[in-house]
Amino acid sequence: MQDYDSCMNFTFSSPDAGVCTVKLWASGRYGFSLPKKVDIVTPAGDTATFFYYNRKFRLTAELSNRAIVKIAIAQFLAGAGRGEPAEVDHDIPPYEGALTPVRSNTPRAPLRVRPGKSHARLRPQAQREPAWADQ
User: Fold this and answer.
1) How far apart are CA 114 and CA 83, in angstroms?
2) What's the domain range around 34?
3) Which of 1, 15, 39, 46 is the most buried (most CB within 10 A)?
């Protein structure tokens, strides 16, 4: 089993379960690696799990993270993924309702700057008081 890092969290309104929480987990440093896992949790605590592998060769681009979440929600509303994990199916039309992003309370890591880059060596000049001779 892969080690997953939290990537994206959403909430959406389900007609039968109420406001559900969606967590998209992706392996890799920035959430671009495969496989991806989508967990959907109802207010009652029921969980549905979906995996996205993109094993099929297609002429279209790989699905975006938000598209994966919307397709998993559509499968969840159709009854899939409850009890037994399911694979995200490209052929199912995505969920058309609103997704509300949920921000994590943990601070983001600072951006990395390579020391060899010219913008990394430039330092902003501090504002100085004019010298007595300039006044």
Assistant:
1) 46
2) 5-104
3) 39
